[in-house]
Amino acid sequence: MPAWAKPIVKRGPRPQFEIEQVLPGADPGECSDPIIDSNDLKDSGDLKGAYQILMDLCRADLRCLDAHAHLGNLFFHRSPAFAIRHYEAGVRIGELSLPPDFYGALPWGMVDNRPFLRCLHGYGLCLWRLERFKEAFAVCERMLWLNPSDNQGVRFDTEEVRLRRKWRPGR
Length: 171
Description:
56% of the residues lie in helices and 0% in strands. By secondary structure, the protein is mostly helical.
């Protein structure tokens, strides 16, 4: 068993929680999804159009964590100092959905947890890129506690961050 997993296993079973996903403007009866629409625009090179959709979602309801995560993604490679603001907003807003003194799990398999976990992951990666190693390491540890199945691969970065190695593209 990897060292990072031992304290989690030792703690024993914990309650699982699913954060309510907010996606304003999405019609459950239709196939259109504004996040997918934004990603399609980004992939086609229309960053302004993608940005506009995501900002419209935030204006409609700041609790749309996926909009915050994807806004961070738009800027991650060009400006981690700018991207971190979007990720952190999503993390802070998402934390308001958690019970006080939350010690449970947010499994990736509960799909509504994914936007929060994406924000937290992006936040940690930006901290790492900005060489704020202590904070980045704390985020890595928190992510492993929240989602021990580690669907985002944080376990592969944790040691690099702990050793204060600089972030490199392609991680």
